[in-house]
Amino acid sequence: MIENLRVEFNSKKIQLLPSRQEGDILCMEGNELIATRSGS
Question: Quick check: pTM over 0.70?
Answer without folding.
Answer: no
